[in-house]
Amino acid sequence: MSVVPSRPLPAVRVVSGEVPARARRAVMRPPEPGRAPRGRAAEVRVGVRDGRAVLEVELDDSAPRAGWSGAVDRGLGHRRAGAALARHLRDARCGDPVALAVPGEVPVDRVADVVTGYLVGARGQDVFAAEPVPVAPELLVVVGAGAGGGDDDDEVRVSGEVAAAVEAARATAVARDLAGAPSDLKTPEWLVGRMAEALGAVGMRTRVLSGDDLVEGGFGGVLAVGGGSATPPCVLVARRPGPGTRVLLVGKGITFDTGGISVKPAEGMHLMRTDMAGSAAVVAAAEAFCADDSPAHAELDLTVVVPSAENMLSGSAYRPGDVVTHVGGTTSEVTNTDAEGRMVLADALAHGIAECDPDVVVDVATLTGAMKVALGMRTGAVMATDDDLADRVSAAGARAGERWWRLPLPDDLRPAVRSDIADRRQAPKGPGAITAALFLEGFVDGRPWAHLDIAGPARSPEEIDEVGPVATGFATRTLLGFLRDLADRPRA
User: Fold this and answer.
1) Residues 380, 405 contacting (CB under 8 angstroms)
2) Spatial separation of the C-alpha atoms in residues 318 and 155, rounded to whole Å
3) Residue 291 to residues 193, 294, 295, 298, Cα–Cα distance (Å)
4) Residue 326 DSSP symbol
5) How is the chain split among helix, strand and coil, in percent rounded to 5?
6) What pTM did the predictor assign?
7) Which tens digits make up the pLDDT trace of 12-24?
8) 39-96, pLDDT tens digit by residue?
9) Which site from 252, 298, 363, 392 is most exposed, i.e. has the minimal number of CB atoms within 10 Å?
10) Can 342 be counted among the known catalytic residues?
């Protein structure tokens, strides 16, 4: 996606033998008493070992508590260490490479976490600045240097781990770039055009629906949400057929969200350019997955649908009290125009299911402020009709370093989404993240389905762990791992 405003990632190279003389060596040390590391530049200091200056990085490698399904993110401490190292070097304007000895300083099974933290931790989104912050220097992963030795098997394994980490970091960077791009550039047409180019380049067949196509296709939700904007809505449909499990991924693509007639407060509205972070994660993960043409991955039948619109306030905007007809004929009573994400997702889910007859459906969206209240800014919500899907998402997240918590879809709340004047009520009272999912459940045709609400972790106000301000790329690495898992371990 070279046409998307972007910053480069640092270079990473695997070498064997001793640490090169020109490189500054990174070593791990325990954290300061009473202070937990958070991936900040101040957690690195210059020290001396064996008469040579080194960069001492705080590392807390104790495993955090298990998630809802027992999945544990064991790499958090090492990602924080990698991010702290990159941020220190960035802020110090250091151009010399930094070397990490494996397994001397970092065990082989944690090297990918350090690399991931290093690559994405210091990468900014200041692409429009006259003087952008410099990129962190090259990271050398030195196999067999120092204590602990190493062998040929280590070098092969480390090279594989580093390659996977670089691929995941690149996908995360793509999602961040898309979500962070300003909305004066990022119209629906621009967004789905860039996404279609990227997915087409890795072998997916792409179509962009707009204008009469949306009218004839019955995309009432997309047309209603986009009706208040001078920039018309679009829908991207991309597919790579295969003989294996059929997977449908749907991502919310709202390029800017004023809330419409149910207008949002001014504070924080500038961040609504990231309201398409779900679609960014879906497309970035699909692009990275399809770029790997291994036989198992080529088996998976993958479809991506991105409904994109701008939710603006104008005389042609849709209203509370309107009744909208979605793809397939289901009608919705509109009760809050700021609940626009579920309106476009309903169309996309129904269209995608008709398009590819999926075995598995996953949608991803910055959907509800209620989810931020429930789970905060570092954990995504999983709501699923299928335990296997929920387990796979959680496990993929733990491997990728993204936390998920499962919320229920209780029967006693289902009546809340029934309308007196239409088939479904769009935004009923009650626990908002759950009722939003229950609304969407009516458009998945009973298929095994997982809904991922990333309203909290898709954005960050600061540098913490391996994420930075504005768009985080959250869910990208989870989805990439989820697709790989389905390809390697198909559902029964």
Assistant:
1) yes
2) 59
3) 19, 9, 12, 10
4) P
5) 35, 20, 40
6) 0.96
7) 999 998 888 889 9
8) 999 999 999 988 888 999 999 998 777 766 668 889 999 999 999 999 999 999 999 9
9) 298
10) yes
H helices of 3-138, in order, are 76-91, 111-121
DSSP summary character for residue 48? E
Q: Can you tell me the distance from the alpha carbon of 417 to that of 481, in angstroms, rounded to the nearest whole number? A: 33
State the Cα–Cα distance between residues 3 and 6, nearest whole angstrom: 8
Structure tokens at 382: 């999983």
CA distances from 196 to 176, 219, 236, 304, 306 (A): 17, 19, 7, 10, 10
Number of other residues whose CB lies within 10 A of the CB of residue 52 = 11
Crossing angle (nearest 10°) for helices 188-201 and 277-291: 10
Rounded to whole angstroms, how far apart are CA atoms 303 and 249? 6
State how far the alpha carbon of 460 is from the alpha carbons of 209, 250, 354, in Å. Answer: 32, 23, 36
Task: Answer whether 25's CB lies under 8 Å from 104's CB.
Answer: no
| 28: CB partners within 8 A, 6+ apart | 56, 57, 58, 59, 81, 105, 106
Annotated active-site residue in 7, 194, 342, 372: 342
Maximum Cα–Cα distance across the chain: 79
Distance of CA 280 to the CA centre of its chain: 7
CB contact set of 336 (below 8 Å; sequence gap of 6+): 262, 320, 426, 427
- Residue 327: Cβ within 10 Å count: 24
Q: Which of these, 316, 362, 317, lies nearest to 340 by C-alpha position?
A: 317
Q: Which one from 29, 38, 74, 264 is the annotated catalytic residue?
A: 264
Average of pLDDT values for 143-163? Answer: 80
Measured CA to CA in angstroms, residue 81 lies from 19, 31, 172 at distances of 19, 10, 18
Phi and psi angles of residue 85, each rounded to the nearest 5 degrees, phi first: -60, -50
Please state, in angstroms and rounded to a whole number, the distance separating the CA atoms of residues 256 and 152.
51
Which residues 6+ apart lie within 8 Å of 449 measured at CB?
360, 361, 362, 363, 384, 385, 386, 389, 441
Identify whether 447 is a catalytic site residue: no
pLDDT of residue 146: 56
Average pLDDT over residues 341-349: 98
